[in-house]
Each structure stands twice: as structure tokens, then as C-alpha cells.
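Hi V.,

You were right to ask for the full record rather than a summary. Here it is.
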Amino acid sequence: MVFFSCNNCGEACKKNQVERHLFQCRNTTFSCIDCQLIYNCETYKDHVKCISENQKYGGKNYVEKENKGEAKQNAWVDQVNRAIEFVTDFQVRELLKSVAGFANIPRKEAKFINFLTNSCRLRDKNLALRAWQAIATEAEKMRLEAIQRQEEMQKAEKAQKEAAVAAKKDSDEEIKKETEETSAEEPEISGTTTTFKWKKVIKRKLKDNGGEMKIKKLKKAVLNEFSSAGGEADDLDALFKEKLEKCVAVTIEGKKAMIAA
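Predicted structure:
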């Protein structure tokens, strides 16, 4: 409960007593007894909660923990404020504005209506029921929106996990394919001890040239690298043709060779 002190006469007032006190001290301001901030006849309504003793004396590193009851009450106040924003009934909106200034608004229908009768001096039960219905309508909308947000988050997380699994699978398959090609490749040994990887060189040359080359140009590039590595063979043309045909990652179309899609 928030307590105020009248800056005109010094009388202490509970929040729900301030409006009545204004008949006694007009155009005065009020200081919150806990935080010492000053409020006028309008802004005091928004001061629904103040610092606790633990916050006041607990030092600069103290962090207040929100209890479950307080969390529920804060959620309920959000529903009241949302009802104020969206309700079209003028009487209901003005009533809810006055209700929003109280610290503990009942969350059950019967207690809420009793609260309006006793604390707000409301005698129109039909208006009280309409006010309750306005809050209940927005509460249901907020509940459904929360469910929808949760479902969307779960879908996004699921899609992200599936994409990660698919990417890993593609990567594993590519590594497996390259490993199989490397294992199946027959190493060519030159007069020295150099091993020449035909399929890797062919694929690299194609990738360096945008994924496709004329076979004649590809052959020249690969055989130049083969010779530079110290490779030797009796019939280089026949050797290149044999290696190119064994390269499953390459497609031959006419006079062109290209990396298979």
C-alpha cells in the first residue's frame, strides 16, 4: 500500500484517501512517504507501488525478487490497462481508469464487483459487470496471443534445428563423397615419389573457372600441373581421358566438362 503526506497540512493519507483529502486541501501536492517523490492531484494515481524496506536499506546492489502473487497482480493490472485502451464504452473506460489507480485490484469476479461497490462507491451493478467483462475479454485475448507467440517460437526453434541437421547431413555427405573419390583414385607415381590426385585437380581447375571448361583447355591445365609435379606417362592424352571419365563429380557434354549439379 502506498502512503502519501499532504504538502499543505502534513496529514498522512492512504492512496484511496487522497481524492477525499483534496476537498480539504485544494491544489496541494503529495509526497510519497517511502520514496519522497512529489505528486500532484493527477500523477499520484499512477504511483501504484513504491520501494520496499529491503530496497530502501539493502544497499545499492540489492535486487528485489518479484513474488508469485505480485507477478499475477502485475499481469492483472496489464489486463486492466489494456481494457482501458480498447473498450469503447465511455462509462466503463472512466470506471476502469479510476480502478487502475488502486494497488490491489481483485482478480475474481465477485470480489471485483464488491471492490467497485465498497472502494469506488459504485451502485450500478450492470456497469460493474460490464467493467468485469471488458477486462475478461482482454485477458482472453492476451492469453491467446501468448499461446500464439509460444507456438511461433517453438516452430522457429524446430525449423532452426531441422536446418542445422540438414546442413550437417549435406556436409557429411560431401565429405563422404570426397573421401570415397580419394580412396578410389589410383595414385600416379612419377620418377620421384610424388602422388598426383587426378580427381581433385580436375575439380579444382573447373571450380577456378566457374564450374565448366572446354575439355581441351582443362586437359592442358591438368597435364601441366601433372608434369610440374614430376609425373610421367607414355600417353598423357589417354591417361587424362581415363581419369576424366572416372571422375563422377564431373559431367561431360560435347566438348565441355562441368561440375555435376
